[in-house]
Amino acid sequence: MKGGHEGTERGGDSEQGEAVGSYQPPPLPCSPQQDLKTPNCLWRDENGKYWTYVGGDIDFQAYDGKPPANAPPTLSPAQAAQIAAARLKMHPVGVGLGPDPSLNSYEMIPVGFPIWLWAEGGDTATKSSTASVAGITVALTAHLTGITWDMGDGHRFTCGVGTPYVRGALPPATPSPDCGHTYTKMGHYTITATTRWAIDWRAGTQSGTIPFAMSQTREIPIGELQVLVR
């Protein structure tokens, strides 16, 4: 998801030196189906000011003056919140896995051996931000609702951030206290950790929640230990 820049109103004594109200021939109006970053797409905010996207992450040009005959739809607070949420800088967690199969001579985890799972790196803490989109101020708070683990063997469950595995701290084959799994068949599996967020937003008297998710994967080999009997 792309990150956290605030929209910039240009006009008056702006960097472009173009007065709001100089009103060039208007761009084409937006339709509700168009992306608001479509070139020459014009919309108006709740205060009656007209805006158009002119490039980059924050380049929105403001217009004042007589509306065009085919006036475009108003940008709603919910639409502004969607744009502001898309600018939040969020990073998915990595798949923490223990014991690490690369650290034993077999380079795999035996069938039936409990593994520990945890969120490694990425974002897990609550984030708050305020953004301005086309003249609408949007307050955002993003909080983690859980991490869904798809183990690649048909098992899927949700945990929190989990507990990191510390080699030698506990007896072998001790299960994770809060987030773990045991494979029952040999194979090479892909573990997918999907971080799930709820982004609460408020713009004026309106508010809502936007769900958001990001994923990372890691491969894990599962095998059998052979005992040689003479």
From TrEMBL:
<dbReference type="InterPro" id="IPR035986">
    <property type="entry name" value="PKD_dom_sf"/>
</dbReference>
<feature type="region of interest" description="Disordered">
    <location>
        <begin position="1"/>
        <end position="36"/>
    </location>
</feature>
<protein>
    <recommendedName>
        <fullName>PKD domain-containing protein</fullName>
    </recommendedName>
</protein>
<feature type="domain" description="PKD">
    <location>
        <begin position="148"/>
        <end position="194"/>
    </location>
</feature>
<dbReference type="InterPro" id="IPR000601">
    <property type="entry name" value="PKD_dom"/>
</dbReference>
<feature type="compositionally biased region" description="Basic and acidic residues">
    <location>
        <begin position="1"/>
        <end position="13"/>
    </location>
</feature>
